[in-house]
Amino acid sequence: MSDINAGGWRPSMGEAGDAKFTTSSGDYGLMLEEALSFELGSPDKCGVDLDPADRAPVAGLGKFLRKAAPGLPGLTEPETVRHYTRLSRQNYAIDLGPFPLGSCTMKHNPRLNEKMARLPGFADVHPMQPQKTIEGALEVIEQLADWLITLTGMASVAMSPKAGAHGELCGLLCIRAALDARGEKRDVVLVPESAHGTNPATAAFAGFKVESIPATPEGRVDVAALKAKLGPNVAGVMITNPNTCGLFEPDMKEIGDAVHAAGGYVYCDGANFNAIVGKVRPGDLGVDAMHINLHKTFSTPHGGGGPGAGPVVLSEALAPFAPLPFVTRGADGSIHLVEEENASEGHAQAFGRMVAFHGQMGMFTRALTYILSHGADGLRQVAEDAVLNANYVLRSCEDLLPAPFADSGPCMHEALFSDAGLAEGFTTLDIAKGLIDEGFHPMTVYFPLVVKGAMLVEPTETESKAGLDRFIGSLRSLAQRAKAGDQSLHSAPHFAPRRRLDETLAARKPVLVWKGEPGVPGTPSLSEIGGS
Amino acid sequence: MRYLPLTPADRIAMLAKIGADTVDDLFIDVPEAARLAGPIEGLPAHASEMAVERHMSALAAKNVSAGSAPFFLGAGAYRHHVPASVDHLIQRGEFLTAYTPYQPEIAQGTLQVLFEFQTQVARLFGTDIANASMYDGSTACWEAILMAARVTRRGRSVLSGGLHPHYGEVVRTMAKFTQDDIISLPAKMVAEADDAAVIAAIDDKTSCVVVQYPDVMGRIPDLAAIAEAAHAKGALLVVVVTEPVALGLIEAPGVLGADIVVGEGQSIGVGLQFGGPYLGLFGCREKFVRQMPGRLCGETVDVEGKRGFVLTLSTREQHIRREKATSNICTNSGLCALAFSIHLTLLGGEGLARLAGINHARAQATFERLTRISGVSLMNDAYFNEATLILPRDAREVVRELADRKVLGGVSLGRLFPQGEGLRNGLLVAATETTTDEDIEAFALELEAVLEGASA
What we know:
The complex is a heterodimer.
Chain A: H1 37-40, H2 77-88, H3 111-117, H4 120-123, H5 135-152, E1 156-158, H6 164-182, E2 188-192, H7 198-205, E3 209-213, H8 223-229, E4 234-240, H9 252-261, E5 265-269, E6 289-291, H10 294-297, E7 312-314, E8 326-329, E9 335-338, H11 361-397, E10 415-417, H12 428-437, E11 444-445, E12 455-457, H13 465-484, H14 503-508, H15 524-530
Parallel strand pairs in A: 2-3, 2-4, 4-5, 5-6
Antiparallel strand pairs in A: 1-7, 6-7, 8-9, 10-12, 11-12
Chain B: H1 8-18, H2 49-61, H3 84-90, H4 93-96, H5 108-125, E1 129-130, H6 137-152, E2 156-159, H7 165-178, E3 181-184, H8 195-201, E4 206-212, H9 223-232, E5 236-241, E6 260-264, E7 280-284, E8 297-301, E9 307-311, H10 318-321, H11 334-370, E10 377-378, E11 386-390, H12 395-404, E12 411-412, H13 413-416, E13 426-430, H14 437-451
Parallel strand pairs in B: 2-3, 2-4, 4-5, 5-6
Antiparallel strand pairs in B: 1-7, 6-7, 8-9, 10-11, 11-13, 12-13
Helix pairs in contact in B: 3-11, 5-11, 6-7, 8-9, 11-14
GO biological process, one term (chain A): glycine decarboxylation via glycine cleavage system
Region (Disordered) (chain A): 1-20
InterPro entries (chain A): Aminotrans_V_dom, GDC-P_C, GDC_P, PyrdxlP-dep_Trfase, PyrdxlP-dep_Trfase_major, PyrdxlP-dep_Trfase_small
């Protein structure tokens, strides 16, 4: 923080080793604070050497010219590298330890993926170059598409959606288009209450009404309740399988048959495909559309919240409606790009376009690299090890933390616990924040909503047994402390770059941009908050 | 398998702890008929790093990279020089391999970057606030239209004919399903943007007008005039910026009266990447904040009073509001936002202005040379780093023939607007700081040869 060292050493700092000891810089050894770039830089600084333009703007531009350069601070290269490197050290990351966020899935990101995506033939190619100059790019898309189709046992895949929720939207729009083609107006989509929030949001975004389906006490979709809701107004169902309780839906085929018999379609949220890749093909279970989060199953990096990529595999029934653009392979083996210009030749039913250009190409190269590295045998091993790791966590902790569905059998890729049985006033949040002090990223908390105080632990296949044992040791220790009523947990984390942050304050009077003058330290925006 | 840490002995010990005999016992919930007995047939087995690298490199080698030929494509994706430190920094594992910052105490790096990013975007656009990014420019454009409808409680939007046709297609595709009323003005190959047509289309049912700045043909609309006309009828002005480097030279849309500004951030820090992942930018007036889509990062304090950052106002978002959310968006483009932010930090305001000036000057040099070719003329009165050339024949064929001659010579309007009338001879040409005099001369000579009908 910029103002911390303003006063220099003060007698109140205390002696080294005592709890109140502070340093004059505000930094503590390798625990480094960092000001905002706006406080460090100034608009006249530049980390890029640029000669002035060699001519004046054309006359026509005169009235459009901006009056002053944008008020953006610049930094030289050494300052820039230091700013971002110091900031990076305030982040937890999969490179530092497990990231056991259930249903979010963060596995190791192989560095070969990064190297391949940066080959100039992929990284430095424009999306609208003439086709003969991008044949390798189209081939990457086609090869990845072929793998996804084969691994899922589906008929086709729409590659362009930008992320999982965008893929959900693509699948539901295919369903809308198919219903339109049948001349039917069905406006209801059934969504289980354990679903990701994106499912109902997407259905609403696509213009459907959402009706909720309850879960059984075993954590599965209530098939009877679902069947009771089927009818001529139901466009389809959205089922997550494996579901967000970490369980496989054993009645998936029966559900699919019933939905199809009633004239609807089955959307499968494929967020958890990593649990079954190479072991089960969703196409064998009556699925009509399923998105695949490439970062979850196929290891593309998530970079602090994106980019994602959400290709959608489709059944024969929905394939004709896939959005533009896409890549097809002709009978002679040649690859063709289908877009607005040529879609009328055999693809007139495409429902339209969801994105500019071709989708997340940089994620396709990474995912294909990952898939080729594993091969059919390795991908199967991925699912087996992911499920094995999750069950190991489940059985290693269930004596201390209640596991609501553990009695009904093994889990899939994630282990679900609840905070029932902790001492009075202790909750999932205390366990989660305690894990931070233990050096781990917490699990997914308070999701799925069907379990009170849910803790959803997904270790993934890229954790070693020794690493899991350390994590389990910490989780058990925290459970014991929370059962014993260890008050220090309420104020955890104690050892993170920040203690618990005031989220209510942030939401009550949002400060979303820095409002000071570049290069002038201080935090005027904070004093505004204080005045509210 | 180099990515799987469990040893056979580990697996046996873990199965014993679980109380299962084999790993297949853990898949008992899967109906027997759906369980695959072994690896899917017909697919290759695992491969070494060296073998995969060879395979992928061979595919990459089949593409002509932009840096290997005279290159003049734009149309919503621009080739700029990205300083080496940008790519180095985004590959730091703490950024690259972090997930969404759900636990702010151990995600301050990502969160502070997002706060800085939001501030940069807002200052670049001249808007009060900005969000933590969207998928790309086209999806941000559709989200802006939805947001305008929420703000104005009206359902009719007017799209300028100068809007990138892919963006227009995304909007029309989505609107088909949501029943929003979209009026799409035609693209015309004339010197000035269609401001008058946009203004004439605004009525008291109009929720917003969507205007690209500079537009897809490189022209520059008069935003202040359109804003005034829109506001007079209670409609919002949504401005789309697909080349943010332009804002180093021309006035910020927010300053000219835009209510929502969205854009594609690819041209700063991200690179071409055959179209994705890119970076949706989204800024607007502060009073609309609770109608905004996407993640927002906000400033707060921790229990010790230290400044810190959190994701905030999540009551707008799908994980809380479910079917009542402002959008179904869940992911942003965090890593691309980081690249954008680092590149813009390296540039600074004056650096960006200088870069923009260089881009404009390179475009001038390009058009001065190309319009010396017989039969080639410049359509635009004004442009930034991209403009439309009018050729004596169908530009789609010309682009293909130029590619045969190892020149990547722009994007034809015929490909962008396959249904458009009177656009066939238009060629959209962009130049940036990466365009050399040698590139321009090579382009000019080959274009001349193609137009003279010489064989390659």
